[in-house]
Amino acid sequence: MRFSSETSSDGVREQFFTLGEIPGVLWSPEGAAGTRPLVLMGHGGGQHKKAPGVAVRARRFVAECGFAVVAVDVPGHGDRPKDEEYDRITTENRARAAAGEDLAPLIAGFQALVARQTVPEWRAVPDAVQRLEYVGAGPVGYWGVSLGCGLGVPFVAAEPRVRAAVLGLGGSAASAEAAARITVPVEFLVQWDDERVPRDQGLALFDALGSAEKTLHANPGGHGEIPAFELDSTLRFFARHLG
Amino acid sequence: MRFSSETSSDGVREQFFTLGEIPGVLWSPEGAAGTRPLVLMGHGGGQHKKAPGVAVRARRFVAECGFAVVAVDVPGHGDRPKDEEYDRITTENRARAAAGEDLAPLIAGFQALVARQTVPEWRAVPDAVQRLEYVGAGPVGYWGVSLGCGLGVPFVAAEPRVRAAVLGLGGSAASAEAAARITVPVEFLVQWDDERVPRDQGLALFDALGSAEKTLHANPGGHGEIPAFELDSTLRFFARHLG
């Protein structure tokens, strides 16, 4: 793990790093020492490790809960090189969707393929980050919606250090089998008028989660329109389960 | 409005009253003066104005938000006389359900009948209570699940003083038409394994709400098993919209 730059603002330290080939960013309380909860955040499709939706949430987790937060670029996103195979499949899927094919299973197949790469990549992230004295081996949380849900469900299912997860904007076609293996508390977000994830598939993914404690929050609006008050709820959810 | 008794504990004053023929209870901050938000609570079927689920919530609304809270007995419940017509219909419905008839529309029909009586009764409650100096004409909220949802939906639709409502454990058969006339923010509770309200009917009632801001919270478990953390969420919801 090599750090390349560091800045601080409003009490939050932001450090860019690479872990092998993977570029990432770590947020932590400025000047703090000792073990703390770590939240790994997965970004959305076409976004990157420091997309506004990721960074705004990360800074609040640090400032209000004292957590450390880490995000890395998904293959083919952000500062990572283009991936020819993924690009080829994406182009193919667009053509198939344009020709009338149902988009949801195409996205599901693609996310399952990418997850075979990201699950081991993401499992290496807490291995490295938790060696830092100001992070330590505390409880781990996961936050990810949309692509971050499609890749997050198999990650959370595979990683026993994860104690709680916020997921959503994803459908059962992508990951019902892995969802059934998740047993930690989950807060699951559905957008009631999601133009990308059919409502019944989002509800089916919530239904498939194996967790005894899982809570579905559904709100009106499209895929990108999660209301601001859900971030307050996410903060309380993580504080309850990781704090 | 005639008060019959008054006690206080933990900073919460509890006053029993009758309004015409209707017995009720009013909770307010002990020794407080001036206008404050008022939450009207509707109890569940077979329960009453001071059932534990009502009283526990009421005391927290008062202690943590400084609200006043009022609940009255539904006809045929608590300290009200038995109602021969309602009893006859209930007995009939039980026999029809035992004979294999679908229970949901029977309950819906019964609740619609009772609501014709309770909507005007409940609208008279803030008329009276808001005349008290320590309540005043502040914003009004409504909380009610199960029977409290079946009767609450037509009440909230009819009463313009209500600015926010927590509803749930109710189905679309009972009140979809009135739900469409509700425009205030609603937090709507669904129990994912509700043995009394089919899941699709609960989701359909949420869908039918006319409110631009509405949020569905669904949790695993049966009809009576709303998790404790939902009360924390309810408090924040009312604080946000009435406070």
TrEMBL record, chains A, B:
GO terms for molecular function: hydrolase activity. It comes from the Bacteria. InterPro entries: AB_hydrolase_fold (IPR029058), FrsA_esterase (IPR050261). Keywords: Hydrolase. PANTHER family: DIENELACTONE HYDROLASE DOMAIN-CONTAINING PROTEIN-RELATED, POLYKETIDE TRANSFERASE AF380. Belongs to the AB hydrolase superfamily. This is Alpha/beta hydrolase. It comes from Streptomyces prasinus. The lineage of its organism: Bacteria, Bacillati, Actinomycetota, Actinomycetes, Kitasatosporales.
